[in-house]
Amino acid sequence: DKITQAVSVFDYDKNKNYRFLVTQGKSLLAYDGKGKRVKGFSYNPDAEITNAPQHIRYNGKDYIVFGSESNMKILNRKGKIRIKAKEPINFSNQNIYFYNNKFSTLDADGELVQVDLKGRVSKQTLGFDTQTNMMCSSRTLVAQWANQLQIKNNKTTLDFGNYLAPQLFYLKNKIYVSITDLQSQKVTLFDSNGTILSGFPIYGISKIDLSNADKDSALELICQSNDSELIMYQIY
After folding, report:
1. Using an 8 Å Cβ cutoff, are 141 and 127 in contact?
2. Most CB within 10 Å of its CB: which of 123, 124, 136, 183?
3. What does pTM read for this prediction?
4. What pLDDT, in 10s, does the model give residues 195-215?
5. How many CB atoms lie within 10 A of CB 132?
6. d(C-alpha 116, C-alpha 12), whole Å
7. Looking at 60-146, which runs of residues are DSSP E strands?
8. Whose CA is closest to 111, among 136, 128, 90?
9. Any bridge partners for residue 27, and if so which?
10. CB atoms within 10 A of CB 232
């Protein structure tokens, strides 16, 4: 059967005992690092899965969360329902995050929808439009729509362009937010206040990865420079 969502890769206990979750329409299949089906994992499907499953750990418990038509599914490691959302959600194409201790996403109207640990559903209107891209960490929400970028409560007006969804990194106790404009072929890196870091924007045509990739203290940023090459920058 056709794989209908991006493959999700989980490392529940951070011990490289990887689990690969494959979505095929309504079905959710779990494989181990050797490509064998995980014994004991059994998800009972009832509707099309609408986005790639995410893994969230909170207070020592694991949650697998995704949208299934108008229902937010919150499962345990074995694929069984851990929390049942009490109201339907009109999902957009955005992923689900754990933000401010709630399972959070944007609905099709651009509203922030959250499900708490008891399954209660709440909505907030934050001024986003229906085409907003969102990404969250536990305490930081980043949103981009048209030429607007919002990091927490800090709004930045961007040049008009063709932007990929923003990315959020938390490294060395600092928040970094990147955004790529395919029209100008530029990557820009912001801090948590929405201030552009020194030396940016830089050339790039893709989303990035940001990490300390070697033994010195500086961070490295890697992205595509064309269809067949990567480029790495060092951030001092």
Report:
1. no
2. 136
3. 0.91
4. 999 999 999 999 999 999 888
5. 21
6. 21
7. 61-68, 71-75, 81-84, 97-99, 102-106, 112-115, 121-124, 133-136, 141-145
8. 128
9. 24
10. 12
pLDDT greater than 90 at residue 128: yes
Nearest Cα residue to 33 out of 14, 51, 10, 56: 10
From CA 164, how far away is CA 161, in angstroms rounded? 10
pLDDT, one tens digit per residue, over 14-46 is 999 999 999 999 999 999 999 999 999 999 999
The amino acid at 125:
T
The string of DSSP codes covering 201-230 is SEE-SS--EEE--SSSSSEEEEEEEETTEE
Alpha carbons 35 and 20: distance in angstroms, whole number = 8
Segment 161-187, tens digit of pLDDT: 999 999 999 998 999 999 999 999 999
The token pair at 99 is: 């933000």
Which two structure tokens, joined as six digits, stand for 165? Answer: 């969804």
Sign of the CA dihedral running 205, 207, 212, 213: negative
